[in-house]
Amino acid sequence: MDRRTFLKASGAASLLAPVLIREALAAREQSLVAVAEGTDYPAITRKVINSLGGMKKFVKPGDIVVVKPNMGWDKAIEFAANTHPLVVRTVVEECLAAGAKKVKVFDNTCNDSRRCYVNSGIENILKGMKNVECKHIETERFKKVTLNGHFLKEWELYDEALSANVYINVPIAKHHGLSKLTLGLKNIMGIMGGSRGYIHRNIDVALADLNAHFKSHLTIIDATRILTAHGPQGGNIADVKVLNKVIASTDIVAADAYATTLFGLKPADIPVTVAAYKRGLGEMDLGKIKIVKA
Fold this sequence. Notes:
Layout: H1 3-27, E1 32-37, H2 41-51, E2 64-69, H3 85-97, E3 102-105, H4 113-119, H5 122-126, E4 132-134, E5 142-146, E6 154-158, H6 159-162, E7 166-170, E8 172-176, E9 180-182, H7 203-213, E10 218-227, E11 240-249, H8 252-260, H9 271-278, E12 290-293
Parallel strand pairs: 1-12, 2-3, 2-7, 3-4, 7-10, 8-10
Antiparallel strand pairs: 1-11, 5-6, 8-9, 10-11
């Protein structure tokens, strides 16, 4: 090809590029969010998982799976500070039924870990389950990871999360004094070591940095009861609203976007959601998300 022919071809390609990009974006699979409602929490948790193709779509025989709830607070179940133990146990059961070799459940808690694990109800409900570990964080297992993010260039992340075959994010939907809400994107803080308070300087960008590097394979949001004020710790039963809902998606941004509406807010109201969307981590436009009632 001579230079003139090459330049003509290059020019045509550059004109065509935006068209191809738009077509590729249009052809991308639409984000799907499954929502189930009912007072039988194991049943509605299974419904949303099955609506996404079942746990066997995510977990293969022999996999090591991390199920990461929020159990960071020394609060009883009814205060909606931690993920509901029945939701957590059901996710664990589904992983085992799909053939998981081992399921690990942990959180880097904010209050005393021994009290958090017990009073959240999660440690007790998992006791005696074969091939299930619910053990406390071991600080020596944090590893410094290069993120090359917009705000965080590196951070210590928990080795057991990094080495797992599958990571399932199981937060509770609740109010947060700084980020407005804490949902799937923020639940990643439970695998962070170091001085986590540092990220509060630019929390939306920092969380986008972390989620861009470390992806959740599946996000299941517990909205059986939500904390509407004084989060993330709560402590007043008057701030708790019972919704009896569970939400699931492979798109963490879409899951958070839908959960935001439970608080009478829009996805654009939550800076963390916006930052993750701008980073290309998922869809926040509810008009472009397929919402399925399971």
